[in-house]
Specification:
Elements (H helix, E strand, L loop, with lengths): L3 E6 L7 H8 L9 H9 L9 E3 L1 E6 L2 E6 L2 E3 L10 H9 L7 E4 L12 E2 L5 H18 L4 E4 L4 H9 L3 E11 L6 H6 L3 H16 L3 E6 L7 H15 L10 H10 L4 E7 L8 E7 L3 E9 L6 H17 L3 E3 L13 E11 L2 H27 L23
Parallel strand pairs: 6-8, 13-14
Antiparallel strand pairs: 1-3, 2-5, 3-4, 4-7, 5-6, 8-15, 9-14, 9-15, 10-11, 11-12, 12-13
Protein backbone atom coordinates (compact mmCIF):
# COMPACT_ATOMS: atom_id res chain seq x y z
CA UNK A 1 0.00 0.00 0.00
CA UNK A 2 3.03 2.23 -0.36
CA UNK A 3 3.01 5.35 -2.53
CA UNK A 4 -0.77 5.75 -2.27
CA UNK A 5 -2.59 9.05 -1.89
CA UNK A 6 -6.30 9.83 -1.60
CA UNK A 7 -8.17 12.69 -3.25
CA UNK A 8 -11.79 13.77 -2.93
CA UNK A 9 -13.06 14.98 -6.32
CA UNK A 10 -15.99 17.43 -6.32
CA UNK A 11 -16.88 16.58 -9.90
CA UNK A 12 -16.16 13.74 -12.26
CA UNK A 13 -14.58 16.18 -14.69
CA UNK A 14 -11.64 16.38 -12.26
CA UNK A 15 -10.73 12.83 -13.35
CA UNK A 16 -9.72 12.11 -16.93
CA UNK A 17 -12.25 9.97 -18.83
CA UNK A 18 -9.73 7.34 -19.94
CA UNK A 19 -8.34 7.11 -16.41
CA UNK A 20 -11.83 6.50 -14.96
CA UNK A 21 -12.82 4.08 -17.71
CA UNK A 22 -9.72 1.93 -17.24
CA UNK A 23 -11.22 0.88 -13.87
CA UNK A 24 -14.95 0.90 -14.70
CA UNK A 25 -15.20 -0.39 -18.29
CA UNK A 26 -14.29 -4.05 -17.52
CA UNK A 27 -17.49 -4.35 -15.45
CA UNK A 28 -19.71 -3.47 -18.45
CA UNK A 29 -22.07 -1.24 -16.44
CA UNK A 30 -22.83 1.78 -18.65
CA UNK A 31 -24.47 3.76 -15.84
CA UNK A 32 -21.08 3.96 -14.10
CA UNK A 33 -19.27 5.07 -17.24
CA UNK A 34 -17.61 8.46 -17.13
CA UNK A 35 -19.84 9.77 -19.94
CA UNK A 36 -23.06 8.77 -18.11
CA UNK A 37 -22.06 10.32 -14.79
CA UNK A 38 -20.56 13.39 -16.49
CA UNK A 39 -23.82 13.90 -18.40
CA UNK A 40 -25.69 13.76 -15.09
CA UNK A 41 -23.45 16.42 -13.58
CA UNK A 42 -22.89 18.69 -16.59
CA UNK A 43 -26.57 18.75 -17.58
CA UNK A 44 -27.56 20.14 -14.20
CA UNK A 45 -29.55 17.01 -13.31
CA UNK A 46 -27.20 16.22 -10.40
CA UNK A 47 -26.06 19.35 -8.58
CA UNK A 48 -25.59 20.57 -5.01
CA UNK A 49 -28.67 22.76 -5.53
CA UNK A 50 -30.66 19.59 -6.16
CA UNK A 51 -29.18 17.85 -3.12
CA UNK A 52 -26.45 15.89 -4.93
CA UNK A 53 -22.89 17.06 -4.29
CA UNK A 54 -20.43 14.85 -6.23
CA UNK A 55 -17.62 13.73 -3.95
CA UNK A 56 -15.82 10.90 -5.74
CA UNK A 57 -12.98 9.26 -3.83
CA UNK A 58 -9.90 8.41 -5.87
CA UNK A 59 -6.89 6.41 -4.71
CA UNK A 60 -3.76 7.25 -6.66
CA UNK A 61 -0.42 5.48 -6.81
CA UNK A 62 1.70 8.44 -7.78
CA UNK A 63 0.04 9.57 -11.05
CA UNK A 64 -2.01 6.39 -11.65
CA UNK A 65 -5.61 6.02 -10.49
CA UNK A 66 -5.83 2.55 -8.90
CA UNK A 67 -9.28 2.78 -7.27
CA UNK A 68 -12.32 5.02 -7.42
CA UNK A 69 -15.61 5.22 -5.53
CA UNK A 70 -18.51 7.18 -7.11
CA UNK A 71 -19.87 9.09 -4.11
CA UNK A 72 -22.29 11.92 -3.43
CA UNK A 73 -23.13 14.05 -0.43
CA UNK A 74 -26.92 13.92 -0.26
CA UNK A 75 -29.27 16.46 1.31
CA UNK A 76 -32.35 14.19 1.00
CA UNK A 77 -33.32 10.61 0.09
CA UNK A 78 -35.01 11.22 -3.25
CA UNK A 79 -33.83 9.47 -6.42
CA UNK A 80 -32.40 6.48 -4.56
CA UNK A 81 -35.32 3.99 -4.52
CA UNK A 82 -34.02 2.53 -1.27
CA UNK A 83 -36.39 4.02 1.24
CA UNK A 84 -34.46 4.95 4.38
CA UNK A 85 -36.97 7.51 5.67
CA UNK A 86 -37.50 5.40 8.85
CA UNK A 87 -33.80 5.89 9.57
CA UNK A 88 -34.24 9.65 9.16
CA UNK A 89 -37.25 9.54 11.49
CA UNK A 90 -35.27 7.59 14.09
CA UNK A 91 -32.43 10.11 13.86
CA UNK A 92 -34.90 12.93 14.48
CA UNK A 93 -36.29 11.15 17.55
CA UNK A 94 -32.75 10.86 18.90
CA UNK A 95 -31.99 14.51 18.18
CA UNK A 96 -29.53 13.65 15.40
CA UNK A 97 -29.19 15.28 11.98
CA UNK A 98 -29.70 12.58 9.34
CA UNK A 99 -28.72 14.81 6.42
CA UNK A 100 -26.39 15.32 4.74
CA UNK A 101 -25.41 11.68 4.28
CA UNK A 102 -22.73 10.11 2.11
CA UNK A 103 -24.11 7.98 -0.70
CA UNK A 104 -22.62 5.55 -3.19
CA UNK A 105 -24.70 4.69 -6.26
CA UNK A 106 -25.23 5.73 -9.87
CA UNK A 107 -27.61 8.67 -9.37
CA UNK A 108 -31.28 8.06 -10.12
CA UNK A 109 -30.43 4.56 -11.39
CA UNK A 110 -31.73 1.69 -9.24
CA UNK A 111 -29.55 -0.94 -10.90
CA UNK A 112 -27.26 -3.53 -9.37
CA UNK A 113 -23.48 -3.17 -9.55
CA UNK A 114 -22.16 -0.54 -7.11
CA UNK A 115 -18.64 -1.16 -5.90
CA UNK A 116 -15.33 0.54 -5.32
CA UNK A 117 -13.72 0.06 -8.73
CA UNK A 118 -10.14 -1.15 -8.37
CA UNK A 119 -7.34 -1.96 -10.78
CA UNK A 120 -7.01 -5.73 -11.39
CA UNK A 121 -3.37 -5.60 -10.29
CA UNK A 122 -4.35 -4.31 -6.84
CA UNK A 123 -5.61 -6.11 -3.74
CA UNK A 124 -9.34 -5.31 -3.80
CA UNK A 125 -9.93 -6.18 -0.14
CA UNK A 126 -7.05 -4.00 1.07
CA UNK A 127 -8.17 -1.07 -1.07
CA UNK A 128 -11.80 -1.48 0.01
CA UNK A 129 -10.73 -1.45 3.66
CA UNK A 130 -8.51 1.60 3.11
CA UNK A 131 -11.24 3.52 1.29
CA UNK A 132 -13.81 2.71 3.96
CA UNK A 133 -11.39 4.01 6.59
CA UNK A 134 -11.11 7.23 4.57
CA UNK A 135 -14.90 7.41 4.32
CA UNK A 136 -15.17 6.90 8.09
CA UNK A 137 -12.65 9.66 8.76
CA UNK A 138 -14.38 12.08 6.38
CA UNK A 139 -17.80 11.43 7.92
CA UNK A 140 -16.61 11.76 11.50
CA UNK A 141 -14.66 14.97 10.80
CA UNK A 142 -17.71 16.49 9.12
CA UNK A 143 -20.36 15.23 11.58
CA UNK A 144 -22.03 13.05 8.94
CA UNK A 145 -24.20 10.35 10.49
CA UNK A 146 -24.03 7.66 7.80
CA UNK A 147 -22.36 6.32 4.68
CA UNK A 148 -24.58 4.24 2.40
CA UNK A 149 -23.72 2.10 -0.65
CA UNK A 150 -26.77 1.04 -2.65
CA UNK A 151 -27.37 -1.78 -5.17
CA UNK A 152 -24.10 -3.43 -4.19
CA UNK A 153 -22.33 -5.80 -6.53
CA UNK A 154 -22.58 -9.16 -4.70
CA UNK A 155 -18.87 -9.91 -5.08
CA UNK A 156 -17.88 -6.50 -3.72
CA UNK A 157 -20.50 -6.82 -1.00
CA UNK A 158 -18.49 -9.61 0.57
CA UNK A 159 -15.43 -7.34 0.76
CA UNK A 160 -17.44 -4.50 2.29
CA UNK A 161 -19.05 -6.80 4.86
CA UNK A 162 -15.62 -8.11 5.80
CA UNK A 163 -14.62 -4.49 6.39
CA UNK A 164 -17.57 -3.95 8.74
CA UNK A 165 -20.49 -2.74 6.60
CA UNK A 166 -24.01 -3.70 7.66
CA UNK A 167 -26.30 -5.29 5.06
CA UNK A 168 -29.92 -4.30 4.46
CA UNK A 169 -31.81 -6.57 2.08
CA UNK A 170 -34.22 -5.38 -0.66
CA UNK A 171 -35.57 -6.87 -3.86
CA UNK A 172 -35.54 -6.07 -7.55
CA UNK A 173 -37.39 -7.52 -10.52
CA UNK A 174 -35.48 -9.40 -13.19
CA UNK A 175 -36.29 -11.34 -16.34
CA UNK A 176 -33.72 -13.97 -17.32
CA UNK A 177 -33.37 -15.71 -20.66
CA UNK A 178 -33.08 -19.22 -19.13
CA UNK A 179 -32.76 -20.99 -22.46
CA UNK A 180 -35.48 -19.00 -24.24
CA UNK A 181 -34.75 -18.16 -27.87
CA UNK A 182 -37.95 -16.42 -29.01
CA UNK A 183 -41.11 -14.81 -27.65
CA UNK A 184 -42.99 -18.10 -28.05
CA UNK A 185 -40.53 -19.64 -25.58
CA UNK A 186 -41.18 -16.76 -23.18
CA UNK A 187 -44.93 -17.36 -23.41
CA UNK A 188 -44.50 -21.08 -22.95
CA UNK A 189 -43.14 -20.50 -19.46
CA UNK A 190 -46.50 -19.19 -18.19
CA UNK A 191 -49.62 -21.05 -17.25
CA UNK A 192 -52.41 -21.09 -19.83
CA UNK A 193 -54.37 -18.26 -18.25
CA UNK A 194 -51.45 -15.84 -18.24
CA UNK A 195 -50.50 -16.77 -21.80
CA UNK A 196 -54.00 -15.69 -22.84
CA UNK A 197 -53.67 -12.45 -20.84
CA UNK A 198 -50.37 -11.51 -22.48
CA UNK A 199 -51.70 -12.26 -25.95
CA UNK A 200 -54.80 -10.18 -25.19
CA UNK A 201 -52.69 -7.25 -23.97
CA UNK A 202 -50.51 -7.29 -27.08
CA UNK A 203 -53.59 -7.60 -29.27
CA UNK A 204 -55.10 -4.51 -27.60
CA UNK A 205 -52.10 -2.43 -28.69
CA UNK A 206 -52.19 -3.80 -32.23
CA UNK A 207 -55.94 -3.28 -32.35
CA UNK A 208 -55.40 0.41 -31.62
CA UNK A 209 -53.28 0.56 -34.78
CA UNK A 210 -50.04 0.92 -32.81
CA UNK A 211 -46.77 -0.84 -33.62
CA UNK A 212 -43.67 -0.81 -31.40
CA UNK A 213 -40.29 -0.63 -33.13
CA UNK A 214 -36.88 -0.89 -31.46
CA UNK A 215 -34.22 1.66 -32.39
CA UNK A 216 -30.81 0.89 -30.94
CA UNK A 217 -27.39 2.51 -31.04
CA UNK A 218 -26.54 4.08 -34.38
CA UNK A 219 -30.06 3.47 -35.70
CA UNK A 220 -31.33 6.19 -33.33
CA UNK A 221 -31.57 9.34 -35.46
CA UNK A 222 -30.53 12.77 -34.27
CA UNK A 223 -33.31 14.51 -32.40
CA UNK A 224 -35.26 11.46 -31.27
CA UNK A 225 -33.95 11.75 -27.71
CA UNK A 226 -35.56 15.19 -27.54
CA UNK A 227 -38.84 13.43 -28.26
CA UNK A 228 -38.02 10.92 -25.51
CA UNK A 229 -37.51 13.82 -23.11
CA UNK A 230 -40.97 15.10 -24.07
CA UNK A 231 -42.51 11.75 -23.11
CA UNK A 232 -40.44 11.45 -19.92
CA UNK A 233 -41.34 14.99 -18.85
CA UNK A 234 -45.03 14.53 -19.61
CA UNK A 235 -45.18 11.26 -17.69
CA UNK A 236 -43.54 12.85 -14.64
CA UNK A 237 -45.90 15.82 -14.76
CA UNK A 238 -48.93 13.52 -14.69
CA UNK A 239 -47.94 12.60 -11.14
CA UNK A 240 -47.60 16.20 -9.99
CA UNK A 241 -45.34 16.68 -6.98
CA UNK A 242 -44.82 12.88 -6.89
CA UNK A 243 -43.58 12.80 -10.48
CA UNK A 244 -39.87 12.57 -9.64
CA UNK A 245 -38.73 14.57 -12.65
CA UNK A 246 -34.98 14.69 -12.09
CA UNK A 247 -33.37 14.77 -15.54
CA UNK A 248 -33.02 17.87 -17.70
CA UNK A 249 -33.51 18.08 -21.45
CA UNK A 250 -29.75 18.64 -21.72
CA UNK A 251 -29.12 15.21 -20.19
CA UNK A 252 -31.13 13.59 -22.99
CA UNK A 253 -29.22 15.64 -25.58
CA UNK A 254 -25.88 14.57 -24.08
CA UNK A 255 -27.00 10.94 -23.94
CA UNK A 256 -27.90 11.05 -27.64
CA UNK A 257 -24.52 12.54 -28.47
CA UNK A 258 -22.22 10.56 -26.17
CA UNK A 259 -24.08 7.41 -25.07
CA UNK A 260 -25.94 6.35 -28.18
CA UNK A 261 -24.28 2.91 -28.35
CA UNK A 262 -25.85 2.03 -24.98
CA UNK A 263 -29.35 3.32 -25.78
CA UNK A 264 -32.39 1.40 -27.00
CA UNK A 265 -35.63 3.26 -27.74
CA UNK A 266 -38.93 1.44 -28.19
CA UNK A 267 -41.05 3.68 -30.37
CA UNK A 268 -44.84 3.22 -30.31
CA UNK A 269 -46.18 4.60 -33.57
CA UNK A 270 -48.84 4.55 -36.27
CA UNK A 271 -46.78 4.52 -39.44
CA UNK A 272 -43.39 6.17 -39.02
CA UNK A 273 -41.28 5.01 -36.02
CA UNK A 274 -39.72 8.48 -35.99
CA UNK A 275 -43.14 10.00 -35.29
CA UNK A 276 -44.06 8.16 -32.08
CA UNK A 277 -47.11 8.56 -29.86
CA UNK A 278 -45.15 7.01 -26.98
CA UNK A 279 -41.73 5.65 -26.23
CA UNK A 280 -39.62 3.86 -23.65
CA UNK A 281 -35.89 4.25 -23.06
CA UNK A 282 -33.67 1.34 -22.10
CA UNK A 283 -29.96 1.10 -21.45
CA UNK A 284 -27.91 -1.86 -22.65
CA UNK A 285 -24.54 -3.49 -22.23
CA UNK A 286 -23.24 -6.54 -24.05
CA UNK A 287 -25.48 -8.97 -22.17
CA UNK A 288 -27.87 -6.93 -20.06
CA UNK A 289 -30.79 -4.53 -20.56
CA UNK A 290 -32.16 -2.00 -18.09
CA UNK A 291 -35.49 -0.21 -18.37
CA UNK A 292 -35.32 3.47 -17.44
CA UNK A 293 -38.08 5.83 -18.63
CA UNK A 294 -41.27 5.92 -20.64
CA UNK A 295 -44.19 8.15 -21.59
CA UNK A 296 -47.04 8.51 -24.04
CA UNK A 297 -49.22 11.22 -25.52
CA UNK A 298 -52.19 8.84 -25.77
CA UNK A 299 -53.84 6.51 -23.28
CA UNK A 300 -53.70 3.31 -25.33
CA UNK A 301 -54.78 0.22 -23.43
CA UNK A 302 -51.77 -1.93 -22.41
CA UNK A 303 -49.26 0.31 -24.23
CA UNK A 304 -47.14 0.58 -21.09
CA UNK A 305 -46.83 -3.21 -20.87
CA UNK A 306 -45.93 -3.44 -24.55
CA UNK A 307 -43.28 -0.69 -24.67
CA UNK A 308 -41.75 -1.39 -21.26
CA UNK A 309 -41.93 -5.20 -20.99
CA UNK A 310 -43.00 -7.24 -24.00
CA UNK A 311 -41.22 -5.40 -26.81
CA UNK A 312 -37.96 -5.14 -24.79
CA UNK A 313 -38.09 -8.86 -23.92
CA UNK A 314 -38.74 -9.75 -27.56
CA UNK A 315 -35.83 -7.54 -28.63
CA UNK A 316 -33.58 -8.96 -25.90
CA UNK A 317 -34.29 -12.48 -27.10
CA UNK A 318 -33.34 -11.55 -30.67
CA UNK A 319 -30.18 -9.76 -29.57
CA UNK A 320 -28.83 -12.43 -27.23
CA UNK A 321 -29.40 -10.38 -24.06
CA UNK A 322 -29.31 -12.62 -21.00
CA UNK A 323 -31.23 -10.49 -18.46
CA UNK A 324 -33.56 -7.50 -18.31
CA UNK A 325 -34.05 -5.31 -15.23
CA UNK A 326 -37.21 -3.27 -15.94
CA UNK A 327 -36.62 -0.71 -13.19
CA UNK A 328 -37.94 0.04 -9.72
CA UNK A 329 -41.48 -0.47 -8.47
CA UNK A 330 -44.56 -2.07 -9.95
CA UNK A 331 -46.33 -5.06 -8.41
CA UNK A 332 -47.59 -5.97 -11.91
CA UNK A 333 -44.10 -7.07 -13.00
CA UNK A 334 -44.44 -10.54 -11.50
CA UNK A 335 -47.34 -11.30 -13.85
CA UNK A 336 -45.03 -10.59 -16.79
CA UNK A 337 -42.38 -13.09 -15.69
CA UNK A 338 -40.10 -10.81 -13.69
CA UNK A 339 -38.82 -12.75 -10.71
CA UNK A 340 -37.95 -11.03 -7.43
CA UNK A 341 -34.24 -11.16 -6.70
CA UNK A 342 -32.50 -10.00 -3.52
CA UNK A 343 -30.10 -7.08 -3.58
CA UNK A 344 -28.29 -5.39 -0.76
CA UNK A 345 -27.52 -1.91 0.42
CA UNK A 346 -24.49 -1.54 2.70
CA UNK A 347 -24.27 0.94 5.56
CA UNK A 348 -21.97 2.49 8.15
CA UNK A 349 -23.16 4.71 10.99
CA UNK A 350 -21.14 7.07 13.16
CA UNK A 351 -23.25 7.47 16.30
CA UNK A 352 -23.07 4.37 18.55
CA UNK A 353 -26.64 4.45 19.87
CA UNK A 354 -28.12 5.00 16.42
CA UNK A 355 -26.01 2.21 14.93
CA UNK A 356 -26.89 -0.21 17.71
CA UNK A 357 -30.63 0.28 17.22
CA UNK A 358 -30.49 -0.29 13.47
CA UNK A 359 -28.15 -3.28 13.65
CA UNK A 360 -30.51 -4.88 16.17
CA UNK A 361 -33.44 -4.33 13.76
CA UNK A 362 -31.74 -5.51 10.55
CA UNK A 363 -31.89 -9.33 11.01
CA UNK A 364 -35.67 -9.19 11.45
CA UNK A 365 -36.08 -6.78 8.54
CA UNK A 366 -33.94 -8.94 6.27
CA UNK A 367 -35.86 -12.08 7.23
CA UNK A 368 -39.13 -10.33 6.40
CA UNK A 369 -37.74 -9.23 3.05
CA UNK A 370 -36.62 -12.77 2.23
CA UNK A 371 -40.13 -13.99 3.06
CA UNK A 372 -41.61 -11.26 0.83
CA UNK A 373 -39.36 -12.31 -2.04
CA UNK A 374 -40.48 -15.91 -1.67
CA UNK A 375 -44.15 -14.84 -1.56
CA UNK A 376 -43.77 -12.72 -4.72
CA UNK A 377 -42.14 -15.55 -6.60
CA UNK A 378 -44.76 -18.05 -5.44
CA UNK A 379 -47.33 -15.84 -7.18
CA UNK A 380 -45.50 -15.64 -10.52
CA UNK A 381 -47.83 -17.40 -13.00
CA UNK A 382 -45.22 -19.77 -14.36
CA UNK A 383 -45.72 -23.40 -15.20
CA UNK A 384 -43.85 -25.90 -13.04
CA UNK A 385 -40.42 -25.04 -14.44
CA UNK A 386 -38.01 -23.88 -11.67
CA UNK A 387 -37.86 -20.20 -10.95
CA UNK A 388 -34.53 -18.53 -11.83
CA UNK A 389 -34.19 -17.57 -8.17
CA UNK A 390 -33.27 -21.16 -7.36
CA UNK A 391 -30.18 -21.04 -9.55
CA UNK A 392 -26.85 -20.32 -7.92
CA UNK A 393 -25.78 -17.46 -10.12
CA UNK A 394 -23.91 -14.47 -8.66
CA UNK A 395 -26.96 -12.23 -8.23
CA UNK A 396 -28.51 -14.73 -5.82
CA UNK A 397 -25.47 -14.99 -3.57
CA UNK A 398 -26.57 -12.27 -1.15
CA UNK A 399 -25.43 -12.62 2.43
CA UNK A 400 -28.12 -11.59 4.92
CA UNK A 401 -26.72 -10.08 8.07
Amino acid sequence: MADLSARWHQGIAEIDEQTWQALVAPHDLPYFNWTWLEAMEASGSITPRHGWQPLHLGIWRRSELVAVAPLYLKGHSYGEFVFDQPFAQLAGQLGLAYYPKLLGMSPLTPALGYRFFTAPTENALELTSLMLELVDDFCRRNSILSANFLYADPTWQELAETAGCATWLHHQSLWSRDGQTCFADYLAGFNANQRRNIRRERKAVAGAGVTVTALAGDTIPDGLMARMYHFYSGHCERWGVWGSKYLSDDFFARAERDLRRHLVLFSAHRGDPLDPIGMSLCLRSGSQLWGRYWGSDEDVDCLHFETCYYAPIEWALREGISSFDPGAGGSHKKRRGFVARPHASLHRWYQPGFEQLIRRWLPQANARMQAEIEAINAAVPFTSRPLPLNRRDPIDQILVS
